[in-house]
What we know:
Order of helices and strands of chain A: HEEEHEEEEEHEEEEEEEEEEEEEEEE
CATH topology of chain B: outer membrane lipoprotein receptor (LolB), chain A
Oligomer: heterodimer
Helix content of chain A: under 10%
Number of strands of chain A: 24
Structural class of chain B: alpha+beta
Radius of gyration of chain B: 21 Å
CATH superfamily of chain B: Lipoprotein localisation LolA/LolB/LppX
Radius of gyration of chain A: 25 Å
Largest interface: A-B, 37 and 34 residues
CATH architecture of chain B: Clam
CATH class of chain B: Mainly Beta
Largest sheet of chain A: 19 strands, antiparallel
Number of helices of chain B: 3
Amino acid sequence: MKRLRILPLLLLLVAVTYNVNAQDEPSLKISGEFLSDERFLLKDKNDWAWNENRLSLKLEKKITDNSKFYSDVWLRNIGLPKLSASSDLYNKNIVNPYNLEIREMYVELYGFLFKNLDLKIGRQRIVWGTADRLNPTDNLNPLDMEDILDFGRRRGSDAFNFNYYLNNDFSVQGVFVPFFQPANLPVGIFANALNPSMDLPQGLVLKGFSDTLLTPKYNLGESATAGFKFKGMVKSVDFSLSYLWGYDGLPFVTRNTITPVDFFGGVNIKSQLSFARTHIIGADMATSIAGIGFWAEAAAYIPENDMVMTTDLSALYPLSPVPVTHDSVLLQKAKPYTKFIVGGDYNFKDGSYLNFQYMHGFVHERGNENLNDYFFLRYEKKFFDEKLKIAPIGGAFIVTNWGKIDSNYALVYMPEIAYKATDNAEITISTVIFAGKGDNLFASMNDYNMFMFKLKYNF
Amino acid sequence: MKQKIQTAIFTMLIVAGSLFSVTAQDASTILKNMDDVMYSPKDLTGVNKIILIDKNGKQESREATVQQKGNDMRMLRFTAPASQAGIAVLSLPNDVMYLYLPAFGKERRISTSVKSQNFAGTDFSYDDMEAKPYTNKYTPKLLKTDATGFVLELTPKGQSDYSKLVVTINKANFYPEAMDYYDKGNNKVKEAKYIFKKVGNYWNAEEIEMTDLKKNHKTKMQMSDVKYDTGLSNDEFTVRKLKQ
Lengths: 459, 244
């Protein structure tokens, strides 16, 4: 709680201190976006899959010529009422679910202490990587997986972000995030999408499940994240090298305790989850060759300690003189794993646009043997003075086992039509079709083919 | 007799060659004079209002602030409409271009293939908006001279979407008054009309009206609050500034 009080105070202090010699800059810019996002399933009775009405309110204030304040707050009505008893009708949060979220709120100081040093303090999104939306090196902010179809979305982190510009082509960045913020998981119909499947020994039936989440202690040594990046451009090629010492924001199951509850094989499982301290070494590049935009990005993930999942079966063998446990190694510090992505785009003379990416390792995949291959493709063309945009090809093809590809693949097809009704209002309709076989995230979603409608209005 | 004919032909060839040389040189000089008028300021800042007019006469407008230094450094930042406010494009030497989209919070390198595309829904391609001297990109040929102007045909020296441009240049002040763009099939596809006004020591293209003849769509680019030679430094044309 103290932490929450200190940060706005610190922001205010910095803003006021920096404002001492400020010229009067009364202009507070208010802008924002209204988004209505409605989705329903294509099968059966067309269950509603998503309901979100979001007001994104942005405030921007130039404090001095060398500093500014910025904030982005989401006020949302999200989800559908989950009513189970008449008492729920007295609770407006259940009848009309809504939430308020500070996405970003920071003060940025240009030329702080030194002419070439910029400092940004507060809640902020720090985007690393050159790839399109899916960036293996982008790990400073926690994953925001609330809407699993909004690939690459992350929340802001409360951070100190220093950028020192060596010259116009090279810069060094240092970031310090004082405390750990985990990823938030999907909600709604995708709530269980990332839950691992559990293989029980033969004859056992799961009757109950509970878990405990072990989080790092909120002190600088245990909870902090730090990152450094060197960025530059040589011969029209942009590149960067980065290092990050932080946590994997998605927890690992590190202990399962299995307890019998009846004489027919029924068991309860109590799991313990914890977060892995990880070193991440990254590199990326982007350039344009013969009109084609190219980018590549890779990150090597090195766990600080081995991550082991211990399954405790002792309660099933009460007569055993020693604890009956089984260990599975999830990650080894001696065996780093590398995620990477390469891609390109091209603008055709007729105004159409093609974007393609190949990625090894999706955001939730960890460990060399669990990284799958993803091929993304999108083709779009604009019509009627660019008011209508049609993307007939869009989606991904995923392979989880090249040796048995016919039973280990997934296809995600996302065609889209967007119409600019006015300068500031855009209506988008699209569908998502999932198909596939095997044990992978997207193949398991083939019951969730859906139609989506979005209205976006900027002001 | 034979010798006389040979001498006559030789003389004619020399005269024709000289005439051609004079014409070519004149065309080059005229084009260079136009470049000098258009690109002599060391730097420029201003506000660009872009009015899009469709075939039914319906108008939409955009606004952007512009900073330019030399021929190959430009920062353009949209301020209106709200859906585009904050989007910025940085152009640097060697066809390096970055796009900043506030929604993504990072700069993005743009592939050079975008140069053949229309800029932000206008009838100008990124290529049309380049501030590179025409003498670098085109070979001129004088088509016509009249009391008020010169008409030059410009043939691209390198790769281009156009087979030629035909430009009418003001005789007194050497600024372009009109420019016609021809596609590879030699069809006129676009035409631009210029209104120049003197700001300080320089001629400013106060309004450029570009018409896409295929789409019957027009774009007016109006420059206001223009300031020349304010001493913009190279630091204004960096990714650091793009993100501010």
